[in-house]
Amino acid sequence: VFIRPEDTLESLYGDDWVYVARFNRIDRRHVYPGMTIKSPKNMADIRDYSPLPATYEPARPYDRYILIDMEEQWLGAYEYGVLKFSMPAATGKDGYETPTGVFHADARHRNHTSSLYKVEDQSAQYPMDYAIRFHVGADNVAYWIHARDLPGRPASHGCVGLYDEDMQKRIFMFPDRPVLADAKKLYEWAVGESAYEGVDSGELELLEDGPVVEITGKNPRYLPTPQRAAADVKK
Q1: Which residue, 24, 87, 139, 231, is the most exposed by fewest CB within 10 angstroms?
Q2: What number of helices (H) and strands (E) belong to the chain?
Q3: How many CB atoms lie within 10 A of CB 93?
């Protein structure tokens, strides 16, 4: 579907916009005139869409196992090898690829912000709400799963981003009515108070026996997309 100036996901798909957004790995803030998105012939085909396997043998011994497929730009949460839920993700862009391999989550930080990168207008450090750290590189750079924008393609500097429209509204004043909250959902399942005793202070906390995080594949290849005009940016 070609996006016209008057189009939004809601105007095109009504209440089904959520499924189309997930299918395209994109948030509402990044749907702009001149781009095209994938549109299903039958909406029922994507309402429970997940490109990840319903069962995953390496996850069978673990009560919490996170699988991230970079080619699919998708994350799955497994309990004893069974997929409990899954969600789109944005991994590291070319030149900043997310490290692959098998890791363990070793820290949580619900109110984390980037120490290196700022938001588009440079007014504040980039928010990384509901952050789960899974790796610290030899250069002492930390990699997290956290809330961020999802533009429909790999976009980060190595971290793994998930939907959080509450964060977008707080920082960018859009969307008016936040709906998508995948970063919070994963955080509460993986490292929240139900998984660890004690109150989550919101500050950085080291974890013992954090869930396994497996990252596989390579970044997908895309055709060139239209350049986005500054006037199209939703703030």
Answers
A1: 139
A2: 4, 10
A3: 16
If one counts every other C-beta atom within 10 angstroms of the C-beta of residue 209, the result is: 11
* N-to-C CA span, the chain: 24
H-only helix segments in 150-228 = 165-172, 182-191
Domains of the chain and CATH, by start: 1-49 (no CATH), 50-220 (2.40.440.10)
pLDDT digits over 130-186, tens only? 999 999 999 999 999 999 999 999 999 999 999 999 999 999 999 999 999 999 999
What is the per-residue burial (b if ≥16 Cβ within 10 Å, else e) of 130-145?
A: bbbbbbeeeeeebbbb
Asked if 110 and 202 count as a contact pair (C-beta separation under 8 A), the reply is yes
The structure tokens listed for 214 are 């497996």
Tokens of 216: 């596989």
